Each structure stands twice: as structure tokens, then as C-alpha cells.
Amino acid sequence: MREIKQANIVRFTERNDVRCADIEVKAEGLKEILLVEFTPTKDNDIDMRHVYRKDASNEIDWYDNNLHEAFKDVSEELFNNNEHDKEWGEREAFIKEILSFGSIRKELEEHFRRTHTASLFYTHDVEDQTFLH
Fold it and tell me: What's the pTM value of the predicted model, to 2 decimals?
């Protein structure tokens, strides 16, 4: 995989009832900016769900509009080989490199930990949650 030149958290959001974080990534040898979606896992880790090629122009789409196909999912294109098996080594190296850029891992862990604790509707461990009044 290519060396990460820049990685910035763009937003924390929720898609299809799943908490996620969008990170813009500039990688060595790519003209395009990638938008990488990370989500928390059940074992308190962080995993990458999708990688999008961002074809939007900030001059035109100053509010980051994704309604006109400006984001194309390139996850399979980046991490599949000819036999249609996932290149887990490359994928994991890419994830590790993004998460180790600056304070990205720390910020994601903190955000996902806080949103997990604050969730009133998370029924898996309701008895263990502490609610502040």
C-alpha cells in the first residue's frame, strides 16, 4: 500500500444505525483524496468499513455534498487480488498506517468510548452503564 501523507478526521456520524468516523486520507502516488470510514468493533477495537474515492471539489461542494456520486466506493478495487480474495495484509497495513497518523487512533477511541457510554438505547450491556444525572 502507499505511504499516508495526510490523514484528518472529517466528521463523526451514524450510518444505518452504526456509529462511524470519516477520515480524509492523502496517499503517496494518488491524485485523489480518499475518504475512509472507520467503525468501532464489539471487542473495543476500530475497523475500516469502506474506502471512497472523493471526486468532489471543495470550490463547488463547499459543504461536502455527497448526493451526486462524488464518492465512489473503491474498497474492493484497493484490496482484492485477481482471485477475488481480500488482500488482508495490505488492508491491515493501510488501517494501521492511518490509525498511527498523528493522534487519529486516540481521538477515535475516545469518541467511540464516550458515545458507547452515553448511549441510552444500547441494550447489550444496560446493567453496566453509568448514567450521570
Answer: 0.72
- pLDDT, one tens digit per residue, over 8-30 is 999 999 888 889 999 999 988 88
Beta bridge partners of 126: none
What tens digit of pLDDT does each residue of 107-125 get? Answer: 999 998 887 665 555 555 5
* Rounded Cα distance, 84 and 53, in Å: 20
Complete edge-to-edge strand list for the sheet that includes strand 46-54: 4-15, 18-27, 33-40, 46-54, 71-73
- Contact by Cβ (8 Å): 35, 11: no
Contact assessment for residue 74 and residue 52, using Cβ atoms and an 8 Å cutoff? yes
* 52: Cβ contacts below 8 Å, ≥ 6 apart: 34, 35, 36, 37, 71, 72, 73, 74
